[in-house]
Amino acid sequence: MTALKEKLKHFLELKLIDEIIKGCKVMSFKEGDVIIDYSKQIKFMPLIVSGTIRVMRKDEEGHELLLYYLSSNESCAMAYTCCMEARKSEIKAIAEDNVELISIPHEKLDEWLVKYPSWKSYIFNSFTQRFNELLKSLESIAFHKLDERLINYLKNKSKVTGKSSIMLSHNQIAEEMGTSRVVISRLLKQLENNKKLLLYRNEIKLLSTF
Length: 210
Known about the structure:
The chain is an alpha+beta fold. The chain contains eight helices and ten strands. A hairpin with a 5-residue loop joins strand 4 and strand 5 (64-70).
């Protein structure tokens, strides 16, 4: 708990940290675990202690699209909204690697907004950050070619995991980017021919030239 306190004190006040440690649960998830699923009641807001979470959204036709990643000290604005309005989840949150998070009960969210200035600032900053990331995603879809979007996707994936090897199938990438597996395979093969990466079964290794 001492390490957790040290981590939180950089952006939350001590009285709030004491409340978090006393009244909130620390939860652990393994890579691939579904933390929040579509149409389920969200009863807590996750505050990430370590690891990375991938947040997806499904359209009316059932196609999934990557919204954003969450890492250490970050939280999900959409989970917060669903909690506050007692709505069922419109997102899916999946552990990219081993994840540890603090489960903030929904009844505390509104209370702490009034009670603690640092919590209010944290929540508003989270909304701003997520909104900016969504704008970048929309801009990428609207104005960038698919090959540019794929390169940015792979760079971002490497950045959040801290690894040059990306353990994903072509089909998974296609689903997250909202396109077809055939197109993604063709673009990846082109990048391999240009000596930017190496392709293996369900693995992509980015080279220094990428």
